Amino acid sequence: MAYINTTEVIAKSKFNRFHLGLLIWGFLLILFDGYDLVLYGTVVPFLINKWHLTAVEAGAMGSYGLFGMMFGAIIFGILADRIGRKNVIAITLLFFSLFTLLCGFAQTPTLFSTFRFLAGLGLGGIMPNVIALLTDYAPKSMRSMIISIMLCGYSVGGILAPSLGILLMPTFGWESIFWIAGLPLVALPLIYKQLPETVSHLIRTGKKEILLTTLSKVSPGTTFNKNDEIAELKVSEIKIPIVSLFKNNQALSTVMFWIAFFSCLLMVYGLNTWLPKLMIEAGYGLNSSLGFLITLQSGAIIGTLIIGRLCDKYGSKKMLVPMYASGAVVLTLLGFVGNTFVIYVLIAIAGAATIGAQNIVQAYVSQYYPAYIRSTALGVASGIGRTGGMLGPLLGGFLLSVALPIEWNFIAFAIPGLIATIALALVPERHAYYNKVSNEGDPSLEPTENNVV
To answer: What is the pLDDT of residues 415-453, one digit of tens each?
Structure first.
């Protein structure tokens, strides 16, 4: 009989077929989240013409989905630490895929907005849980890199939306790109079968046999026996997960993460909703403006991969603070540059420093907190961040309605980048969970005298 510390088993594992499968499924799920991010910005010029919307009304419609995301992120984040991430991922996938599909059949702004809100519940809940699940099982030596690769699916989806818009909308109408979002419904049974449940949930629910089977896939070279003792969660720590975010000297970190998420998502959603319209106002055609969206997402992919690898080597905070700062600088410059090539370069950098930074900070938060509150930490931070995401489209709509010079629109979106820089700089690294594990052993686990059965 041996003692199994699941944290150590997973941390010391080597990337294998199990991790690859989990990465692929996570990538595909996040892809559709990113697809929805840019979806509304792709069709908003058509909706304005079809339903005779003002810029403010169009911005408000864009915020309904984000309003749903705010609630979805918080509710499903907390729920996942109770009923398991796998179950919540299935529920959230059903929500966002079904109701985004139905948006393509909406005949009125009210019905469209209702479907966007309901889809938002699922979209807000799926990303924190997919990130948390991958963090639960990723080897320590390449954890940030694996999560960063998965989160590139967000930007691939963001590229897919305007690309399909260019291809499909002239022939099949704006509705067609919403119908594409129904594809995950077909794959739901297979996804549910393939995804593992998180270790902490299996321990709490006494599913030892499933746990050992999963661990044998994580670390194929290790032999596990049903009589082995397994580290057990300290139950007192998980009764009210959201309260635990303020324990163990992590209150300041929690608040600073919330501010950073709020500020960054304001930039991300504001840009993705209004960048095509801003560029049309600046004299570019629709297809060229959609091309800027593709460039924004391409920059995010490159930035996420490069910085994600550097995070494993030098630490996430050291990479994120300058990323946020560069985002503020680049967005400011966008309003003063007229050369098309330079604009494309700046937009690519902006993608890395806004969407890319948001990808990396989620990987950072998922590792900053222990597994038993990981979904809660990400879910609440994402939910608060979505309030910034709601303000982004509204802010852009307001600025366009008052007809300010184009440079002031970009400066307005640059200011939150500066705020995010300051907030993240104030996060104390010494209180991070991974540092406590390195110095003291895993404080969230303790050996149990009885086997988990």
So the answer is: 998 999 999 999 998 888 777 655 555 555 444 444 343
- Tens digits of residue pLDDT in 176-199: 889 998 888 998 999 999 999 888
Q: How many residues does the chain have?
A: 453
Return the C-alpha torsion angle 267, 269, 275, 277, nearest 10. -130
Report the run of H or E that residue 30 belongs to, with start and end.
helix 17-51
Cα distance between the two ends of the chain: 15
Number of Cα atoms under 13 Å in the Cβ half of residue 227: 2
CA distances from 129 to 80, 198, 210, 244, 292 (A): 7, 10, 20, 18, 30
% of the chain at pLDDT higher than 90: 20
pLDDT lower than 70: segments of the chain: 1-2, 37, 231-241, 276, 282-290, 337-338, 436-453
Contact 349, 326 (CB under 8 A): yes
Q: What is the DSSP string of 333-352?
A: HHTT---HHHHHHHHHHHHI
d(CA 79, CA 434): 24
Helix H or strand E encompassing 372: none
Q: What are phi and psi of 239, to 5 degrees?
A: -65, -40
Nearest 5°: CA angle at 396, between 394 and 400? 115
- What is the CATH number that goes with domain 3-447? 1.20.1250.20
CB atoms within 10 A of CB 286: 17
Domain boundaries, the chain: 3-447
* Cα separation, 95 vs 105, whole angstroms: 16
Residue 225: how many other CB atoms lie within 10 Å: 9
Read off the tokens for 440. Answer: 């003291």
Q: Angle at Cα 192 formed by Cα 187 and Cα 198, nearest 5°?
A: 145
Residues 6+ apart with CB under 8 A from 85: 129, 132, 133, 136, 197, 198, 201, 375
Report residue 115: phi and psi, to 5°: -65, -35
